[in-house]
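Supplementary notes for students who missed Thursday's class. We covered one full example, reproduced here. Read the sequence, then the structure, then the short commentary at the end.
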Amino acid sequence: MIPGKINRIFFFAALPVLLLSCSKKKQVFESQCNDGVTFKKVEFTELLNHLEKYDKQFIEVNGRYVEGFEQSALFNDSLFADHSLKRSLWVDFSQECPLYLSGTRIGLFEYNNGTFTQINKRHITMKGKISVHNTGYLKKYKGSIERVSFIKL
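Structure (token representation):
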């Protein structure tokens, strides 16, 4: 083998390892408001397709969180999914369930180290209680996730 060829092979073999090591450290924010509750892990599409079945149940779901003017919603993070408001969940954060960075008293919505924790347009894992009756701002959403007690960024 030619030395230059070996270097290229090594470079392309090492590239995925280097890219994975550069990823951000996962942040987990938790509340004790749902302690003792068992959460059912559900795929986003399954949840939205059978929302009535999950009404008043505690679930864990992955999605893309979007916030904005009068918006706090969880969307399917698949590129091929319908991203309309009627195919999303209103996220109803509550003061009854304050979310703190694990092992600290740093709140999710608190100013910390010169900035706020950015969750807008991020893929997150969320745990909370499903409600089909709370359809969010101007009743635009399929339902809501309430009593949010866990967020992993």
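Commentary. The chain has a mean pLDDT of 87. The chain is about 20% helix and 30% strand. If anything here is unclear, bring it to office hours.
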